[in-house]
């Protein structure tokens, strides 16, 4: 099985995207060579660069290419210079189009604090040391998509803004299974976050998650209201293993959880569907303020590559090798600017890539 060749769509996008993607690809190529499998890259246009060249931030050829691949390796899109464009032309629109086009309903964000970086967080060492949690956010339902939505004018001429939070039983069940499957492979604990004291949609959510839990007797299920979860995440984050939540709550909690580590340049993510290619990308954006200066931290991109190996390509050993190489390079004291602290060795994006390659 390890002799096969995977077809991967590489989407560099804007800002620091091309710099960090180049590093990530070189590392994936190296680990593939070592482990005896192949990666066939195909490059697509996405984001502002795609808009400038084709008039569309997600050209149909890019989506088609993504659909026909084993996985999508994405960097980042966006630049403040596109902020004045109409909504459907904005680079960020391409992300929504890609999620919808690949039916990616599960967003996975691991939040792990590496021992070398505990001092990068603004929280106390004892609070964050050893954090290893995973936020599973439902990505294609909930209030961002529910109908009716819009700004409506009534007969008297006064306007109302409307969004609707909807979850069907089937939508809850499938995201719950993704989260329980992960919990089984991790710490066997799952905390489902909702607002069941106020929202009917959350009552159904809680009921279905509890029902699905019966299929996973080895996973300990708890429920938490989202306001409390927001507090608990900063009070004692180590109580969590897998956090399962809907689209809106997950958007907020996953950013909060990411910031526990204090280092946006370190955090990978995966977006998965029921079958077909997943999308693997860093949590951060295109960082236009440091683009083209060789200052970006490529590690979130590199670790997203490791997630791709683990979740889409079934190469967990190759994934672990990349993760270990990253930790080893940090242990040697090499740092990009975003994670730099006194006494460490400051290096650029490209050199960080070279150090990780050498370690591999
Ligand atoms: P951002 O994540 O791009 O940058 C926030 C801050 O973190 C900046 O100071 C940046 O220099 C720094 N930073 C981010 N990644 C870094 C890395 N790898 N190494 C070192 N420093 C890093 O968020 P911002 O500034 O709000 O947005 C910039 C653009 O990115 C916008 O157009 C936004 O819409 C887009 N964006 C795209 C995302 C995506 O492609 N998934 C996600 C978030 C924002
Ligand atoms: Mg967000």
TrEMBL record:
- Entry's PROSITE patterns? IDH_IMDH
Q: Which organism is it from?
A: Thermostichus vulcanus str. 'Rupite'
Chain segments annotated as coiled-coil in the UniProt record: none
Keyword list, A-Z: Amino-acid biosynthesis, Branched-chain amino acid biosynthesis, Cytoplasm, Leucine biosynthesis, Magnesium, Manganese, Metal-binding, NAD, Oxidoreductase
The UniProt site entry described as Important for catalysis is assigned to: 144, 195
User: How is the co-factor bound, per the entry?
Assistant: Binds 1 Mg(2+) or Mn(2+) ion per subunit.
Give binding positions for Mg(2+). Answer: 227, 251, 255
Task: From the Swiss-Prot or TrEMBL record, give the protein name.
Answer: 3-isopropylmalate dehydrogenase
Reported function: Catalyzes the oxidation of 3-carboxy-2-hydroxy-4-methylpentanoate (3-isopropylmalate) to 3-carboxy-4-methyl-2-oxopentanoate. The product decarboxylates to 4-methyl-2 oxopentanoate.
InterPro entries in the cross-refs: IsoCit/isopropylmalate_DH_CS, IsoPropMal-DH-like_dom, Isopropylmalate_DH
Gene name of this polypeptide = leuB
The record ties this protein, via PANTHER family, to: 3-ISOPROPYLMALATE DEHYDROGENASE
The record's section on Pfam families has: Iso_dh
E.C. no = 1.1.1.85
């Amino acid at each position: 099985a390890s002799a096969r060749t995977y077809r991967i769509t590489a989407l560099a996008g804007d800002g620091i995207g091309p710099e960090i993607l180049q590093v990530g690809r070189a590392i994936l190529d190296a680990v593939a060579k070592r482990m005896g499998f192949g990666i066939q890259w195909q490059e697509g246009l996405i984001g502002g660069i795609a808009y400038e060249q084709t008039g569309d931030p997600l050209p149909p050829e890019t989506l088609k290419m993504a659909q026909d691949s084993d996985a999508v390796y994405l960097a980042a899109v966006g630049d403040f210079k596109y902020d004045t464009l109409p909504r459907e032309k904005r680079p960020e629109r391409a992300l929504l189009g890609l999620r919808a086009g690949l039916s990616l309903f599960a967003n996975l964000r691991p939040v792990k604090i590496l021992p070398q970086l505990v001092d990068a967080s603004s929280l106390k060492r004892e609070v964050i040391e050893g954090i290893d949690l995973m936020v599973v956010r439902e990505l294609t339902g909930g209030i961002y998509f529910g109908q009716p939505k819009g700004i409506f004018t009534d007969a008297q001429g006064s306007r109302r803004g409307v969004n609707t939070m909807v979850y069907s039983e089937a939508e809850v069940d499938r995201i719950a299974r993704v989260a329980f499957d992960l919990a089984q492979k991790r710490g066997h604990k799952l905390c489902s976050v909702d607002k069941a004291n106020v929202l009917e949609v959350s009552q159904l959510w809680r009921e279905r998650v509890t029902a699905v839990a019966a299929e996973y007797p080895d996973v300990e299920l708890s429920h938490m209201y989202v306001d409390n979860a927001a507090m608990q995440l900063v009070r004692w984050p180590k109580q969590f293993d897998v956090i399962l939540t809907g689209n809106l709550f997950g958007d907020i909690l996953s950013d909060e959880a990411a910031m526990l580590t204090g280092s946006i340049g370190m955090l990978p993510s995966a977006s998965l569907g029921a079958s077909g290619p997943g999308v693997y990308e860093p949590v951060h954006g295109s960082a236009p303020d440091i683009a083209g200066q060789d200052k970006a931290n490529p590690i979130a991109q590199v670790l997203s590559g490791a997630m791709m190996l683990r979740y889409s390509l079934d190469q967990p050993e190759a994934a672990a090798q990349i993760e270990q190489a990253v930790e080893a390079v940090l242990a040697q004291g090499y740092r990009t600017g975003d994670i730099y602290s006194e006494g460490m060795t400051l290096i650029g994006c490209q050199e960080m890539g070279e150090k990780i390659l050498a370690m591999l």
